[in-house]
Specification:
The chain is an alpha/beta fold. 23% of the residues lie in helices and 21% in strands. The strands form 4 sheets. Strands 14, 15, 16, 17, 18, 19, 20, 21 and 22 form a 9-stranded antiparallel sheet that branches. The protein has an 8-stranded parallel beta barrel with strand order 5-6-8-9-10-11-12-13, surrounded by 4 helices.
């Protein structure tokens, strides 16, 4: 290839850069170095070499300030003291007081502060009518006395659990005094076992010299046993060596059955037979350990929420309440007075007044006063002939020596020369459950004539319809069956009479029956 010859024009320093370029001047090495140095300076020039104006870049209103160094920038970035001088008004806080920013420790303390650091009033949050109470303790919850404490759900559950359930029927609760002492000697295991028609069994307890609670009414052993001296002066072994020597059907008891029972033996019967233990603490000089042992025994049989304590000694009830705040207690008194009501109220929840039934202060008006005070009303020791009268007054508990209780029992009066076959026999009628009865007799004497009245039933045992029943009779050298009638309300006369019916003609001695029947 052939190349065209070039004409080189030397660079003229008297001309401008543009003029040298136009004439095709050759740039010398010296000039090139000069140009490169100038370009390098121009590239790094931060002083606006092109003379760009603020208006050209939209910064007409920006003050031309010195550029911050890296150190300045980092200090600025971490500065929390408003380095730009922003005013409260600019950020919409013109009416907010300019206070010091809290430190982290101040903030942490504020978060943990439960004493209302902002001074918020109850009215501001809609609680102006709510009292500012503390939280009830477990003891407060169980006792149920405080009215200036709030209850948490857990404490409420605890309180409900410890309350004694009265029952759905709200009826009268009958208590067998010292066991069924109409059947066996008072305060014996057999007397306790014989209680089948009463809601509860009452016994009296006191402490031996070696700290065991035993069941005995008197402070001495003289009246009821073959020994002498006070209970408090004897050990348990000495008490157990005594024999009970007075009471109903004593001859029917073995020597073992004549022993004075311990408190635990009483509780075992109540547990087994599903009877409420009514525990009278006799007056005495008892220690804290003595009272603690009562609770230990109840806990052993899981009866702490079942038992009722009674006493003429109010301080004894106070001691029990210290240990079982919700347990029912009955303050035994001879008369109802305003002071008695006030004293009983201080015993706390589930408290009752138990009064002698035939005192002049036993009136419906005073029973209402007792109930208005938030207390229950009990009476002692009521014969069965007075049950209806006590119920009509409104009593909640009736303690009695009668075989009748929540279920009724009556001994029948024999008529027309009929007598008991044996001295130990009894002619009786009793409720076995509501509306169901059992009639028993074993008799001799009287006439075999049809229609002869043997005995008459109490009104509560008379059935709506007359009953035709079977019985056994003794003949000469053998036995046979016969019949008798129970006259119900469907007859015009002789309502409630038990009469001779068919098959008695050849009876020589006794007639006997154990007949169950219904009222309806």
């Amino acid at each position: 290839m052939a190349y065209e010859k070039q004409n080189w024009v030397p660079y003229d320093d008297n001309l401008s850069e543009e003029e040298n370029i136009n004439v095709g001047a050759v740039v010398t090495a010296e000039r090139m170095n000069h140009l490169e140095s100038g370009l390098q300076q121009h590239t790094t020039d931060e002083e606006n070499p092109h003379k760009v104006t603020k208006a050209q870049v939209g910064l007409s209103n920006v003050t031309d300030v010195e550029q911050a160094s890296k150190v300045d920038f980092e200090a600025h970035a971490t500065n929390k003291l408003n380095p730009h001088g922003v005013t409260a008004s600019q950020v919409g806080l013109g009416n907010v007081e300019n206070v010091r920013q809290a430190a982290k420790t101040d903030f942490d303390a504020h978060v943990e502060n439960n004493s209302n650091p902002h001074g918020v009033t109850a009215k501001q949050v809609g609680l102006e009518n709510v009292m500012n109470y503390g939280i009830a303790t477990d003891a407060d919850a169980v006792a149920g006395l405080a009215n200036t404490s709030y209850m948490t759900p857990q404490k409420t559950a605890l309180a409900v659990e410890k309350q004694v359930f009265k029952g759905a029927d709200g009826g009268v609760n009958y208590i067998a005094h010292r066991g069924s002492n109409a059947d066996y000697p008072e305060n014996t295991v057999l007397a306790f076992e014989a209680v089948t028609r009463h809601w509860g069994i009452e016994t009296d307890i006191q402490v031996t010299s070696d700290g065991t609670w035993i069941c005995m009414h008197d402070s001495t052993v003289d009246r009821t046993t073959d020994g002498t001296g006070t209970v408090a002066s004897k050990t348990l072994a000495q008490i157990k060596a005594l024999k009970i020597d007075t009471g109903t059907n004593l001859a029917a008891l073995t020597d073992a059955q004549k022993r004075v029972p311990t408190f635990d033996e009483f509780l075992a019967v109540c547990k087994k037979n599903k009877r409420v233990p009514i525990i009278e603490i006799k007056a005495g000089d008892y220690s804290a350990a003595n009272y603690d042992s009562i609770i230990t025994s109840l806990t052993k049989y899981n009866l702490t929420q079942v038992a009722i304590f009674i006493s003429f000694d109010r301080q004894a009830l106070v001691e029990i309440k210290k240990r079982l705040p919700a347990v029912p207690v009955q303050y035994l008194v001879n008369s109802i007075t305003d002071q008695v009501i006030a004293d009983t109220k201080t015993l706390g929840t589930n408290a009752s007044i138990s009064v002698k039934y035939n005192d002049s202060t036993v009136t419906a008006t005073n029973v209402i006063k007792i109930h208005n005070a938030g207390l229950s009303a009990a009476c002692w020791t009521v014969p069965d002939t007075k049950f209806d009268e006590m119920v009509a007054m409104g009593f909640d508990y009736i303690t009695t020596d009668s075989r009748s209780g929540n279920l009724k029992h009556a001994v029948l009066t024999l008529k027309n020369a009929f007598i008991l076959q044996n001295e130990s026999d009894v002619a009786s009628v009793e409720e076995t459950s509501t509306g169901n009865l059992l009639l028993h007799f074993k008799i001799t004497g009287g006439a075999n004539t049809r229609g002869t009245v043997i005995a008459s039933l109490p009104s509560w045992a008379v059935p709506l319809q007359s009953k035709w029943c079977r019985c056994g009779i003794r003949l000469s050298g053998t036995t046979s069956s016969a019949s008798f009638d129970i006259q119900g309300y469907d007859v015009t006369s002789g309502v409630g009479d038990i009469i001779v019916s068919y098959g008695w003609d050849n009876r020589t001695t006794w007639a006997t029956a154990d007949v169950a029947y219904g009222l309806h």
